[in-house]
């Protein structure tokens, strides 16, 4: 399974690495369980057309508004949105996983939810900040199930 992600503070990068390590252990115990390949997108990343299905992990950074009725502006994560738009890469995205800080109430994981709505792929899961080992196991299970269903088509 492929994961494209963007990390500003390092939280998303840490979670992505933890889930890749977890996947490696799962695969070692059961070779039918998928391993994970990571690709970090940042403002200096060369844009390229993706050729294989992937999942997107995106943190939430917004400016203004409450996320419901008085607006918000995506900040710092625009490069990932632009990468998904490039050559219609979003058509290969199997779903998005969001992260954020639950202290931000309605804005928690709002960027991921906005990507799901804009691009038409599912919002699959969320975790707070760097996540917990339970989050890693739960998100991996969701990704593996989604990936398996895609491959069964």
Automatic annotation (TrEMBL):
A Pfam family annotated for this chain is Flavodoxin_NdrI
Q: Which GO terms describe its molecular function?
A: FMN binding; oxidoreductase activity, acting on NAD(P)H
**UniProt superkingdom:** Bacteria
Q: Could you tell me which residue ranges the Flavodoxin-like domain spans? A: 1-153
Q: Which PROSITE patterns has this protein been placed in?
A: FLAVODOXIN_LIKE (PS50902)
Its protein name is: Ribonucleotide reductase assembly protein NrdI
Species annotation: Enterococcus durans
Instruction: Identify the taxonomic lineage of the organism of origin.
Output: Bacteria, Bacillati, Bacillota, Bacilli, Lactobacillales
């Amino acid at each position: 399974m492929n994961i494209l992600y963007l990390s500003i503070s390092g939280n998303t990068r840490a979670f992505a690495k933890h889930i890749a390590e977890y996947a490696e252990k799962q695969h070692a115990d059961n070779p039918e369980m998928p391993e994970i390949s990571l690709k970090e997108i940042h403002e200096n990343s060369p844009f390229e057309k993706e050729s294989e299905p992937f999942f997107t992990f995106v943190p939430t950074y917004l400016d203004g508004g409450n996320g419901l009725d008085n607006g918000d502006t995506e900040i710092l994560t625009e490069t990932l949105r632009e990468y998904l738009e490039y050559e219609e890469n979003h058509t290969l995205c199997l779903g998005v996983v969001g992260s954020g800080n639950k202290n931000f109430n309605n804005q928690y994981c709002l960027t991921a939810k906005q990507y799901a709505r804009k691009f038409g792929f599912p919002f699959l899961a969320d975790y707070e900040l760097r996540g917990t080992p339970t989050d890693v196991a739960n998100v991996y299970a969701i990704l593996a199930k989604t990936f398996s269903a895609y491959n069964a088509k």
